[in-house]
Amino acid sequence: MGGTRILEKDDEDGMSEQGFKRFRRRRAPAEAAPAASDAPRQRPLDAPASSASAQLPATLPEPWERIRQVPFQDAAEQRVRLPLVSRFRSTPAAKSFDLLRTRLSHTLRARGWKRVAVTSPASGCGSTFSAVNLALSLARVPGSRTVLMDLNFRQPGIARAMGIQATADMGAYLSGAVQMEDQLLRPLPSLAVGLNSAKDQDAAEILHSRSCGAAVDDLMLRSGTDTALFDLPPVLEHDDAAAFLPQVDGVLLISDGASTTAAQLAACEKMLAGHTELLGVVLNRARKSESPLN
Ligand SMILES: Nc1ncnc2c1ncn2[C@@H]1O[C@H](COP(=O)(O)OP(=O)(O)O)[C@@H](O)[C@H]1O
Ligand SMILES: [Mg+2]
Asked: What is the pLDDT of residues 128-171, one digit of tens each?
């Protein structure tokens, strides 16, 4: 398995600290200040209305508990084709993802952020590989909640990577036709995944739509998740990641140590600048000598 390394912001990749300060977020965080209109949805629909029974505890579990649990570890052992570092905890790659998780969590917590886009300059760099492994690493933190969404309508990959059958319709979910509880699955008690099975040429329009923003706000508010990772198509190949940027607090850019060029990284930085925060550049398939854990 190739190694994975986190480049610091001021590594020699042209992404200076100064450059980061220029980035500003544009979206007001809905989850930070829940709108009053969202409050009633927290109450179970069948909660009794009479004053006597109003004192009884709510009978429906909260939304997170209503997300269907699916078998994961055993199924993944047999079907998964992606090397999942959760099965190789002591490898340098697994340690790299734990380190990435810890650094990312610190940054997000310090700023009160939760929404992270995971993308890459070109396909095949390891965006899905990194998103899945980072989500598994985040989900190992006791008492935490992590959501992983496959928003790559060009080449959905999370279902296959995790060895879970994808039957859900992500397009319908983002249009508001399907509820969060019906779209997500929980392969682990602390991890919910939104799978994608349909290729859709109108992906950028879907991701840009008002209903997509509303679905993501609702997801963040009602799931009570600590971190949400959104796996997106490559920045330099499609408009999809750009269309979704207003919904996230920051971006993790996955570069391929074997194929990504400095020019590609510079092009990505230019595209993201002014629209979001570049939380980090991850060097996937790093050579051994490049790993800080060797
Ligand atoms: N560090 C790595 N070590 C081993 N295999 C990897 C690594 N990164 C990616 N891969 C493999 O490379 C292929 C492409 O990765 P993927 O995450 O699907 O790329 P992307 O989502 O960016 O298109 C997958 O088969 C994946 O298992
Ligand atoms: Mg992918």
From this structure: 999 999 999 999 999 999 999 999 999 999 999 998 987 878 99
- Which amino acid residue places its CA nearest to atom 25 of ligand 1? 82
* Cβ 236 under 6 angstroms from ligand 1: no
| Ligand 1 midpoint to CA 279 (Å) | 21
pTM: 0.81
- The domains of the chain are located at 3-25+61-290
Could you tell me the CATH superfamily of domain 3-25+61-290? P-loop containing nucleotide triphosphate hydrolases (3.40.50.300)
Atom of ligand 1 nearest to the CA of 127: 22
Whether residue 120 has its Cβ less than 6 Å from ligand 1 = yes
Instruction: Dump pLDDT digits (tens) for 26-42.
Output: 444 445 444 444 444 44
Q: Which of 290-294's residues contact partners 24+ apart within 8 Å by CB, and which partners?
A: 290/3, 290/5, 290/257, 291/3, 291/4, 291/5, 291/92, 291/96, 292/5, 292/6, 292/99, 293/92, 293/95, 293/96, 293/99, 294/92
- Residue of the CA atom closest to atom 9 of ligand 1: 126
